[in-house]
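Example 5.3 — Globin
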Amino acid sequence: MTTLKDISNIEDIKIMVDTFYANVRKDNLLGPIFNDKLQNRWAEHLEKMYGFWQTILFDVRAYSGTPFPPHKQLPVEKTHFDRWIMLFNTTIDAQFAGPLTEEAKMRATNMAHMFNHKIDYFRNQDKAL
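Solution (predicted structure tokens):
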């Protein structure tokens, strides 16, 4: 049995992000949404995600911006976020283990729940107008 190492550097983040989004692209629920939105801009998106996770996990200011606005108009519901969390956790668990790995999973789960809540909030606000 191979012992998995913890996420410890930018190369690990790149492996995590690249593998996760390769799984997203192939997923029958999430793939069509991401592929339609990103089209030929996957490399740009992955670079942003490297910086995002480097900032989150290593407190290195490699990402600036607000991640929610680009997601606000996506045609997603709780089912999509549940799948996103499941894919993220299974992807990362197959590659890494340790405190930063657990931190990444917790942060991803919290972010997915927050995005889902905020999208629902904005949709309900739009309906009320």
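Remark. Residues 4 and 95 are 6 Å apart (CA to CA).
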